[in-house]
Amino acid sequence: MHVSARADYAVRALVELAASGGQPLKREQIATAQHIPVTFLANILQQLRTAGLVTTHRGNDGGYLLTLRPERITIADVIRAVDGPLANVRGDSPEAVKYDGSAEALCEVWIAVRASLRKVLEQVTLKDVATNALPAVVHELASEPNAWEPSKGYSSR
Predict the structure, then answer these.
(1) Per-residue H/E/C for the chain
(2) CATH number at residue 74
(3) Does residue 71 fall inside a structural domain?
(4) Structural domain tally of the chain?
(5) In angstroms, how far apart are the furthest CA atoms of the chain?
(6) Does any domain span residue 133?
(7) What global pTM score does this model have?
(8) Which of 17, 50, 80, 125 has the highest CB neighbour number within 10 Å of its CB?
């Protein structure tokens, strides 16, 4: 899975809001705390606002707030808000892709990839990350042999 800079910044920004205890944070505060370029963050916050995950309050005491409690917003919600579906194949959902011949079973592989992403990303909430109380599934997967080792094999970079 490729996590875009936009998705990474969006998740980090919302975790910062989750950790604020319901106090509004200014864009600059979030950017500084999470080392995110302010101009990039402005665009991301607008997307998150359009998606209904954040709201703004004007004035000296204003800033950004989560629209829902942090335990109600998952990492998957945030990624979908800024990048779209968690898994797609050439822009289509995995179940819409059809293959013939020897590649016919590949559709099921893409479905399994999406299911494995959901298994983690739909269970981890902003509160979980902000309070360092990750669900057991994350600890289990992260403790698997070789989980922390970089991928081996072909790399286009």
Answers:
(1) CCCCHHHHHHHHHHHHHHHCCCCCECHHHHHHHHCCCHHHHHHHHHHHHHCCCEEEECCCCCEEEECCCHHHCEHHHHHHHHHCCCCCECCECHHHCCCCHHHCCHHHHHHHHHHHHHHHHCCCEHHHHHCCCCCHHHHHHHCCCCCCCCCCCCCCC
(2) 1.10.10.10
(3) yes
(4) 1
(5) 64
(6) yes
(7) 0.90
(8) 17
